[in-house]
TrEMBL record:
GO biological process terms, semicolon-separated: dTDP biosynthetic process; dTTP biosynthetic process; dUDP biosynthetic process
Example of a GO MF term: nucleoside diphosphate kinase activity
Record-stated family: Belongs to the thymidylate kinase family.
Statement: the UniProt record of this protein carries the keyword Lipoprotein: no
Chain ranges of the Thymidylate kinase-like domain: 14-191
Protein's name according to its UniProt entry: Thymidylate kinase
Pathway entry: Pyrimidine metabolism; dTTP biosynthesis
Organism field: Lingula anatina
GO cellular component terms attached to this protein's record: cytosol; mitochondrion; nucleus
Annotated keywords: ATP-binding, Kinase, Nucleotide biosynthesis, Nucleotide-binding, Transferase
Span of the entire protein shown here: 33 to 244 of 272
EC number: 2.7.4.9
Length: 212
């Protein structure tokens, strides 16, 4: 289909530690945008619904073992395979609200022994660059209040602490740090305000490339 005359949609990414409420806020944001006439679509990585995503899902569920470099590349491939569709939506004027992206890719793999941020970034270089990264943070105390982890791979405190440190190194000026400790509705309001401004601002801009 053809390019929207209303301008392109925005690429908005949520990142942050487990239990910060990313998925909940993504759903609420898409709903709010749609209700006010702003076309928006929920997206998430890993996308467990593709062939590559199926392998990733098995790995996260601990149903199989994969070599660490290999699985890092699969996570990246799972993003690249989505790029044509993502671009199509963006150019048609649909804003994509994305639950995790390349930053999780880097932060999680770099939390493993023997991996540096620089190596981890390479396969995702050139992906569509987000117009905004909403980084949801939670104090360890607040996180503890929200109950235990699930049983998937990476869901333990020492690993998550390393991941959080890595996120700090990835921050750039298109990141907004959001205190996810406040109540769900105030958080939603804050996120809406920031997002709507970015959507307005990026309408006529080209989609840039990540880390180039
Ligand atoms: P969810 O719980 O959000 O489904 O995430 N992960 C994610 C990586 O290790 N690399 C990546 O590139 C991405 C996108 C984070 C599943 C887990 O997968 C991790 C948590
Ligand atoms: Mg999870």
């Amino acid at each position: 289909r053809k390019k929207s005359t209303m301008g392109r949609g925005s690429l908005i990414v949520f990142e942050g530690c487990d239990r910060a409420g990313k998925s909940t806020q993504c759903v609420k944001l898409v709903e709010a945008l749609e209700n006010s006439g702003t076309p928006a679509k929920l997206w998430r990585f890993p996308d467990r619904g593709t062939a590559i995503g199926g392998i990733i899902s098995q790995y996260l569920e601990k149903k199989c073992e994969l070599e660490d470099h290999a699985v890092h590349l699969l996570f990246s491939a799972n993003r690249w395979e989505a790029v044509p569709k993502m671009k199509e939506h963006l150019l048609q004027g649909t804003t994509l609200i994305v639950d995790r992206y390349a930053f999780s890719g880097v932060a999680f793999t770099a939390a493993k022994q023997g991996f540096g941020l620089d190596w981890c970034r390479q396969p995702d270089i050139g992906l569509p660059k987000p117009d905004l990264i909403l980084y949801l943070t939670l104090t360890p105390e607040e996180a503890a209040k929200r109950g235990g982890f699930g049983g998937e791979r990476y869901e333990n405190t020492p690993f998550q602490e390393k991941v959080a440190k890595n996120f700090e190194h990835l921050k750039e000026n298109n990141w907004r740090v959001i205190d996810a400790g406040k109540d769900m509705e105030s958080l939603h309001e804050e996120i809406q305000e920031i997002t709507r401004a970015v959507i307005k601002d990026s309408k006529d801009k080209d989609i840039e490339k990540l880390w180039i």
